Amino acid sequence: MTIKERKILLFLIFLAISFVMWFLTALDEYYNTQIKLPIVLENLPQNKFIKGGNTRDITLTINGYGYDIIKYSMKNKISALRVNLNEIKLYALKTQDTNDYYFLTNDILLQISTQLSPKIKIISASPDTIFVTFSELISRHVPIKPDIHITFARQYINKKPIRIEPDKVLAKGPSYIIDTLQYIKTEHIELNNVSQSIKQQIRLIPPADVKVIPRNTTLIVEVEQYTEERMTVPIKVINLPSKYNLLLFPDKIFVRFNVGIENYKKIRPEHFTVIVDYNDLKAPPSDRLPVKVIHKPDKIYSFSYYPHTVEYILEEKK
């Protein structure tokens, strides 16, 4: 290191020491300064809620040693001051809304000062008036709307409809929200390649200022492996007058469906009801009749059949 460089380094060291000494001396003096901080309004009138939330910001002009002010300013970043509404006077505003009130900031200074350092003195506060609008707290049961996306592994499907229990929740909050609340959403759940039954709690996401009971619901997904099955099912004729015979070509349909492995052997042709209706002949003339499946087993999926129409011959009995 050259002589010039040593001189520069020495100068910087003395400059830093001088700054520290000046800063420490400054901290030992009284200052007036302003700090902005949140206050939380507590002990509201029974069954009342404050529109816009319970938190307000105020700006305090304070006096104290520099060290105490810095210490409190750092602490204030992680805390808020509490204001007990039971200990101050609320004034009603002369408006059409009978829930409009205000209080004077000077009336809360004593409460606030007890939460500050005893070495800090409050000179003034702004704004000088804080307005609050109360709303009635009400409750009612609201349906839950799941936000769930599920995909199943190959050859697997839900055995029963996906459900949540409970499917309703008691929502409590201000009347202006609860009166128009249509549902409570769940957190988003993404389940992919599912091959086993699922039973898990999912969190509810109520709107701001609304509490729900309970705070969770249970997602239930019953999963089973399935296979594809095909069979032929006879067609029945309904509403046919006794004096006629109706011959169908073909007189059976082919059905195709998916079914859970455990129910595979339980599904038979007689569990389907497939018909053609004589009354359909009264429609504009056609050489074919529509085939209708009016009943099929509840435990099958992805049902399809063929043909959808059949030819016929109508004969009068001898």
Question: How would you portray this structure in words?
Answer:
The structure is a single chain. By secondary structure, the protein is mainly beta. The protein is built from four helices and 24 strands. The strands form five sheets. Strands 2, 5, 6, 8, 10, 11, 12, 13, 14 and 15 form a ten-stranded mixed sheet that branches. The chain has a four-stranded mixed sheet with strand order 4-1-3-7.
Secondary structure elements and pairings:
Layout: H1 3-27, E1 30-42, E2 48-50, E3 55-65, H2 66-76, E4 81-84, E5 91-92, E6 100-104, H3 109-113, E7 121-126, E8 129-152, E9 156-158, E10 163-165, E11 168-174, H4 175-178, E12 184-194, E13 198-205, E14 211-213, E15 216-221, E16 223-234, E17 236-238, E18 244-249, E19 252-260, E20 273-277, E21 288-290, E22 292-295, E23 300-306, E24 309-316
Parallel strand pairs: 1-4, 8-12, 17-20
Antiparallel strand pairs: 1-3, 2-8, 3-7, 5-6, 6-8, 8-11, 9-16, 10-15, 11-14, 12-13, 13-15, 16-19, 18-24, 19-23, 20-22, 21-24
Beta-strand percentage range: over 45%
Structural class: mainly beta
> Which whole number gives the mean pLDDT?
83
If helices are DSSP runs of H or I spanning 4 or more residues, what is the number of helices?
A: 4
Distance between the termini: 129 Å
In N-to-C order, the SSE pattern is HEEEHEEEHEEEEEHEEEEEEEEEEEEE
Question: What is the total tally of β strands?
Answer: 24
Helical content class? 10-25%
Rg computed from alpha carbons, rounded to a whole number of angstroms: 39 Å
Domains (count): 3
Unreliable stretches = 18-27
Largest sheet: 10 strands, mixed
Shape: elongated
